Predict the 3D structure of the following.
Amino acid sequence: FGMLVIFIILPYFLSVFIIYDNTRSSVEEHEIEKSREELEEGSRSLQRYFDEMIELSYSLYNDPDVLSVFENGLNDEQRKPFERSMKIFSISRPEIRQMRIYFQKDSSALSVYQSKFSAPKKQEDYVNQAPFRTLYESEDNFFIERPHVIENANNAAILPESDRTRVLTIHHKVSNVLSGEFLGFISMDIDV
């Protein structure tokens, strides 16, 4: 019986244990590598999304109705075409919960919440408020805030008090591309 245990049963269980340990290590390594690849793909996807959201405001520069308001101020003649362009822009990206737009020419700001516009309000010290002062003085053209509960921009009546959506805000500095003249800011609150 002793010889049976030494030559047959012991080697059998020993080989089963070695095969089990080898297989377990192989499966663990495979799963770790698979998880790493999925994390890298998710990271690339998230980076593409943020790049797209950052570049999105630059598409407004190509709209003459929007650019004209930044350069000349918001007057009655330009208001309807401007609002139409901004409405199309906000409808095309439903994840944009709210936009705040500051016009340096008029020292005024307005909000767009789900395609509804607030009345423009004088904001003489807008550029001096955080984070706009830092962005204004920076070489950068945008600043991303960490996620927070949506805030009533400019105390506009268009944002319901019940809206407690978590958003990520991207602030963009708007400048004349040719002259470098500062024209204002566009801030977008994006659902997270």
Remarks:
- The chain has a mean pLDDT of 87.
- The first helix runs from residue 2 to 56.
- Helices lie at 2-56, 58-61, 64-72, 76-92, 132-137.
- The chain is about 45% helix and 20% strand.
